[in-house]
């Protein structure tokens, strides 16, 4: 009897371990399907005009509300700031890992013309987003994209994704997945854009 209980206990633990690994993957696949199906059902007008808004391409403009209800338009930062757009969600483990590195680089460069726009794609999750931001002590603007219109414009199909944009509005780099923004290479990238006029 004891061996049967131990066997079931081991099976239960293995199933829990497997599910803990699968849930983020299932969520990402769900987002990918939602983006594709949503884009097809709503129409192509939500997709970026340029098939590849990537390095060397002009960043699509957008307007979103912040968590506090303020309006931010990307084009209003053009000519003024180097912008890092980060697409994320509270349930995304790599997003949670990279957020502190984003906060650190933001604190160091915000007074030199650097801005971070953290675009969250969750719907009806304002409290969870607010709790997340407080827990990690995030001070950069958090924008809300619950209809995933902006994430479609940038043709993002997974999380997190970061897009670094120069002052003229052109995409300088696109980082897919977790990225440590405190590395020497990342700092040099940001500094080079801040120093170019």
UniProtKB/TrEMBL annotation:
Protein name: Membrane protein
Boundaries of every Thioredoxin domain copy: 53-197
Entry keyword set: Membrane, Transmembrane, Transmembrane helix
One MF term in the entry's GO annotations: antioxidant activity
InterPro entries, per database record: AhpC/TSA (IPR000866), Thioredoxin-like_sf (IPR036249), Thioredoxin_CS (IPR017937), Thioredoxin_domain (IPR013766), Thioredoxin_ResA/DsbE_sf (IPR050553)
Coiled coil: none
Transmembrane feature ranges: 21-42
Source species taxonomy: Bacteria, Candidatus Methylomirabilota, Candidatus Methylomirabilia, Candidatus Methylomirabilales, Candidatus Methylomirabilaceae
Database matches in PANTHER family: THIOL:DISULFIDE INTERCHANGE PROTEIN DSBE (PTHR42852), THIOREDOXIN-LIKE PROTEIN HI_1115 (PTHR42852:SF17)
Superkingdom of origin organism: Bacteria
């Amino acid at each position: 009897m004891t061996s049967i209980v131990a066997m079931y206990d081991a099976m239960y633990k293995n199933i829990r371990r497997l599910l803990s690994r699968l849930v983020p993957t299932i969520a990402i696949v769900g987002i990918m399907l939602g983006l594709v199906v949503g884009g097809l059902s709503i129409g192509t007008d939500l997709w970026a005009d340029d098939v590849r808004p990537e390095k060397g391409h002009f960043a699509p403009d957008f307007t979103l509300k912040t968590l506090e209800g303020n309006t931010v338009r990307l084009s209003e930062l053009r000519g003024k700031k180097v912008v890092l757009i980060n697409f994320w969600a509270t349930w995304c483990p790599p997003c949670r890992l990279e957020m502190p590195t984003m906060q650190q680089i933001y604190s160091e460069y915000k007074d030199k013309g650097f801005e971070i726009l953290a675009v969250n794609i969750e719907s009806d999750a304002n409290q969870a987003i607010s709790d997340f931001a407080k827990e990690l002590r995030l001070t950069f603007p958090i924008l809300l994209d619950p209809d995933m219109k902006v994430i479609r414009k940038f043709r993002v199909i997974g999380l997190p994704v970061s897009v670094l944009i120069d002052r003229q509005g052109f995409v300088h780099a696109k980082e897919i997945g977790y990225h440590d923004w405190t590395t020497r290479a990342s700092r040099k990238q940001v500094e080079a854009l801040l120093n170019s006029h």
